[in-house]
Amino acid sequence: MWLIKQIARMFCGHGDDVLPPPSGVVDYVQAKKLLNNATVGGVYINAITVQDTNSMLPVFDAGDLILITKDFEHCELTVGDIIIYQGHGTTIIHRIIEINETPDGGRVYTCKGDANGGKDPYYILDEHIIWLFTGVIHCRKEI
């Protein structure tokens, strides 16, 4: 998990140190070929394209490639991590803003899109989380 968090900080940072995305930094096709199904420091990384929802601005925007991994332990997730989870029939990419323990020892996560006014309207359990965000490659938007 330490390596994953270092990769995330290397690409985009967390919290207040996130910089607005630059325009036209990397060619999308070249980045996708290079980064899809890659292994970085023994950690499997995949690259997917961000859809046009604007909920996570300024961290990433439509057309950017986000780097994600399944190589993480749920018990190591912390407030500030960005996760990809299944919620009510859709896949959502948002930041964890609160973690609470359940009576049976599980965890319940509250998430929010950075650009959204309020938190997500439902709680997320470990089994809903499918990927952990590790970084972003800002791409030219001709995709």
From TrEMBL:
Give me any GO biological process, just one: signal peptide processing
Q: Which CDD domains has this protein been placed in?
A: S26_SPase_I
The record's section on InterPro entries has: LexA/Signal_pep-like_sf (IPR036286), Peptidase_S26 (IPR019533), Peptidase_S26B (IPR001733)
- Asked if the Swiss-Prot or TrEMBL record annotates the protein with the keyword Hydrolase, the reply is no
Q: Name one GO cellular component term.
A: membrane
The record's keywords, sorted A to Z, are: Membrane, Transmembrane, Transmembrane helix
Q: State one molecular function term (GO).
A: serine-type endopeptidase activity
The protein's location, in the record's own words, is: Membrane
Matching entries from NCBIfam families are given as: sigpep_I_arch (TIGR02228)
| Protein name (record) | Peptidase S24/S26A/S26B/S26C domain-containing protein
